[in-house]
Design brief:
Blueprint lengths: L1 H7 L1 H7 L5 H10 L10 H5 L6 H24 L1 H28 L7 H8 L1 H9 L1 H11 L3 H4 L2 H24 L3 H16 L2 H24 L4 H5 L4 H26 L8 H26 L5
């Protein structure tokens, strides 16, 4: 609903000039943090072996170790790290939507490359072409060499692949009677082409990507089965909020810690993106676990 509302208001947003501040992006990224805050619990929902204290500690330590490696990569080689993060974001966003649709329909979770690109590409690829004057300075604030690395030819090639994947995915969904799903790639392309990227990406991350993942987590938690079967959402949401509170606070503190990194001036966007990337890489591994194992049997 938020995405559709922003798209409907796009002419007003562009006329008034609102939505251009990087603050919208920062707020959206921070608001979406809780969707990955219970990653350390997810393996235990599908595997009894992963519920032991030792296994949970191993998951948490592994998560932290991978995040630390990503942070070091952003400090040592920001341009390659940022480009890799953008590519991973396309894959993660698209795979998340594919998994969301599959679980909703009771189908096995399978990643179709065209579907992944069609749904994960718009938040990353479209702003690079539609808003270069806005996006390139933001990329440059995170990694000075990134705008030059993403030359116009590469951006056009990515857009062509996105259009082809979107068309193929829409036809596939229409053939299977999933008419609303078929419209999603075009909706996302229109959003990111017409709404300033800071507002569009922030809103997408918090109200589309994160919200869909939280809905999957509520269904994956074994303690929620009876409540959800009876149409009760308050208790599952409460369980999630309690479990996510402390990890979210810790994750939100990471940019503050990065702000004091020696030898580098404080850049709010740069440290936030680096922190988000550090959390995203292990988060993708946990989501892949969830996709392979699926929610617990009823």
């Amino acid at each position: 609903m938020t995405v559709a509302g922003l798209l409907a208001l796009a002419p007003v947003i562009r006329h008034t000039g609102i939505g251009t501040s990087p603050g919208y992006l920062l707020v959206g990224l921070l608001a979406g943090l809780p969707h990955g805050a219970v990653d350390h619990l997810v393996p235990g929902w599908s595997s009894a072996r992963a519920r032991s204290p030792a296994a949970r500690l191993a998951v948490a330590l592994g998560y932290a170790a991978v995040a630390a490696v990503v942070l070091v990569a952003f400090q040592a080689a920001p341009t390659p790290a940022l480009l890799a993060f953008l590519a991973l974001s396309v894959i993660h966003f698209g795979a998340a939507d594919e998994a969301f649709h599959a679980e909703r329909d009771g189908r096995p979770v399978r990643y179709r490359p065209a579907g992944v690109l069609a749904r994960g590409g718009p938040p990353v690829i479209v702003p690079l072409l539609a808003w270069p004057a806005t996006v390139d300075p933001l990329l440059g604030a995170v990694a000075p060499g990134a705008p030059a690395a993403l030359d116009p030819g590469l951006r056009l090639l990515a857009l062509g692949c996105l259009v082809a994947a979107g068309a193929w995915t829409a036809v596939r969904d229409l053939r299977h009677g999933r008419h609303l799903d078929a419209a999603e790639p075009a909706l996302l392309v229109a959003l990111f082409a017409t709404v300033p990227p800071a507002l569009a990406v922030g809103a997408y991350f918090a109200t589309w990507h994160a919200a869909r993942h939280v809905s999957r987590l509520l269904r994956a938690h074994p303690d929620n089965r009876s409540d959800l079967a009876a149409g009760r959402w308050a208790a599952p949401l409460g369980r999630f909020a309690r479990a996510a509170l402390l990890p979210t606070l810790v994750a939100a503190a990471v940019p503050v810690t990065l702000a004091g990194w020696p030898g580098r001036p404080f850049e709010p966007l740069a440290v936030t993106v680096a922190a988000l990337a550090a959390l995203t890489v292990p988060h993708v591994a946990v989501v892949t676990w969830l996709d392979r194992c699926g929610p617990p049997a009823g």
